[in-house]
Amino acid sequence: MSLQLLKGKKGIIFGALDESSIAWKVAEKAFEHGAEFILTNAPVALRMGEINKLAEKCNTEVVPADATSMEDLKNLFEIATAKYGKLDFVLHSIGMSINVRKKQEYTDLNHEWMLKTMDISAISFHRVMQTAYKMDALKDGASVLALTYIAAQRTFPGYGEMAEAKAMLESFARSFGYHYGKNKKVRVNTISQSPTATTAGSGVNGFDVFFNYADKLSPLGNASADSCADYCVVMFSDLTRMVTMQNLFHDGGYSSIGLTEAFIDEMENRNK
Ligand code: NAI
Question: What is the pTM of this model?
């Protein structure tokens, strides 16, 4: 690839589980753009072994870390900074809800599982940033990104308490983004991605309907994992140095749509 937006940049990528994972695509693109990084995931996710193929392709190593364990995170950042020095980027691409997986009704959620959802899907973002902040592990101008979904702003049945987790995640980007920006010139943003067929995505009750509905309403159609990876590369690059504390929609225009002509026609035809 001739355009090397991330040449010389070093980072950590959380959340590549298999080829369909958004983080997997980000790793591939970041590598193409000249970045070097450590891949990490929860020890239980590493048992599948898929991630080793990605590590080989990207000429790197995998360091296990449960994102809810401060000890694991500290160890991860120690290994990464020993290898690279201070880092330029971090991707948080982590989400999990047992309530969603088990298709619990929103009015009948298990609150122990809900606490786990919050810790894994939202508080882990604060844990990652706090670890890096305390260790002074990120360079001036470094870029931290997390992936989110529009259920933080609008209600979608089937998304369970992940909606609240995403709202919290986006809020952490703003709040930590303030402190990180002011004290260490690090930017923090979330990318709000279209429905994407991955292990986490497909676990949502009625995923196909979510996917097709958004695809139909978006003037550009749903954004793929591949194009999300392109956006992440730009957000890790020096071209976006002044963007911080934002929730950035990457959804083919879906978030700005009220109604479309195609939808009106379909409703009218249905009522004939
Ligand atoms: P995925 O299932 O491939 O990735 C989720 C990752 O979270 C997995 O790699 C999993 O091992 C990791 N994870 C779970 N518990 C963990 C823990 N305790 N510590 C460290 N890692 C842990 O699915 P996908 O879709 O690539 O998800 C990535 C991010 O994108 C998530 O935040 C998700 O909510 C978000 N997103 C996904 C959309 C979709 O439709 N797939 C749409 C919008 C946002």
Answer: 0.97
